[in-house]
Amino acid sequence: MPPSSRGIGCVSCVLQVKLKPKNLSEDEDQLDTTQSCSGFVIDAKNGFILTSGGLFSQLLSAADIQLPLTEHQTPEEGDIQVFWEQVMPHSATPKLRSCGGRLLGVWSCYNLAESLRNIFKGSDGWSFQGDLQDGEESDTSGSEGSRLGVSKTKGESHYDDITWLSSFALVKADEVMCGESSRFEFLATAELYPGSPVAVFGTPFGSLCPSALVNSYTGGVVTNVTGKRNTVILTDARCLPGTEGAAVFSEPQQNRKPQVIGLVVAPMCFKTNQWVGLSVACSISEILQSMYAQLHYTKDYLNEIRFQEGSAGHTLECHNFLDSVRLVKVGSSWGSGVIVSSKHKLLLTCRHVVRDAITNNRSVSVRVDRKNNSWCRAKVIFATSLESMIDFAVIQLTNHYDHLGPLIEIPIAANTYEGEPLFAVGFPLFGPETCLGASVTSGHVSKVIRYKGQAVMLQTSCGVHPGSSGGALVSQTTGKLVGIMANNCRDDTNKVTIPHLNFSIPASIFLKPLRRYLHTNDVQYLKVMNIHDKAVESLWKLQNTPTRGHKPPTKVICKL
Question: Annotated region Disordered: where (predicted)?
């Protein structure tokens, strides 16, 4: 169950900044001059709020925030409004309140900027604004034409975008927001594992309609952590424009209190203009450390805040199955593989991941130690034929692995069911050079597609992307392997890839052949995976049985 925002007090607000009319030229007076986003109320009694520095991008340039701006250096041209929800005594209906505010300081988190530039490279097609081009206005709505979140300023580069994403601001509300000082626990990101559940409290679309949207909840899991002291947190929680500055909490486990882990810095990410369904947050401890280091006086402002360091609690040992999924590289391409036998050093993957090894005799490498970037050679034991719609392969490590310790294999489930909660575990989006560990997204088994009583395909709602091929679908309840990720869906008409509609090979279809192979070492048992059935082929291609007047589908399967 999601944590109640009442249980953790007044945590979220909306901040709106508008240029004062006297500072506008005649042309500017006709333009939208309002920006808004979410804020994390770190001290409700004294009105202190942490938020995104990008909120002030109309008042400052990216160059301005390379050095911290103190309270006396911040511009006075912006009119700041704060909106928040107050729970009234003896009333079940919260009241929306508002007041003015003042900017106390703006600073950059340099560790965050460095980490973001290392993994979200513009040359790889990454952006945080989709296909918004320089000179285009973002969509506007509402009576004041408020920008829906922190938008890109005309002429700014990808480098400048990351500069703004890495900046933060401290704002003080002019009124008391709550009668009690805040008491938060924070969780050091060193204790976070991919797969850890998270909750985000923010306000989609900022000041568009705070009476309806303020302090909204969305949930998901930690997808990955990276950077010095795990500064960067990736999550599959569905955040929207305007939630920049929203607080990210760990979901409470076993009656524990929710713990603050970070602030949202980029609610939406795009790669080659395709939405990938991930949000980016910065570690709260990194934000506070960078603020105290650059704006020393803020320690006096925040002396009533009590952050207690907590510890993580996990119902499922996520790191066990994370170690069972490895990055598989063939030439310049990569995918994922799942360890199913430590004794035989066997991994399952997809045929198309190792196709170049089969057809062009390229070598297969498996990363066996991420921290030291150590790789081991592998050979293809079996791969289904190109005519088979079951895109399946088995590979085996061949050399020099023993000194790195035992392989951790994942147990295999005999079956699954529609609605079963899942983790999708693999190496999507980020290449081997980033040295990221396995990424995790969450979802459910949407449908078990059967043919003649046998499960032949799983549809899931997990976020799945290129690089996930050969990765593991893991049951959230048992920790067992329920499938191998193979394909996702693309709408060719609109040139859009759909990450949350994807298809996997059910574990039930390869469990018995794999066991027989492990017992006998006879590859003939694996050849039953070569399924050449037109009906199964039509299912994997999302094609109905051809009929007169049948219109070809616009959606086609694409490889990951």
Answer: 131-154
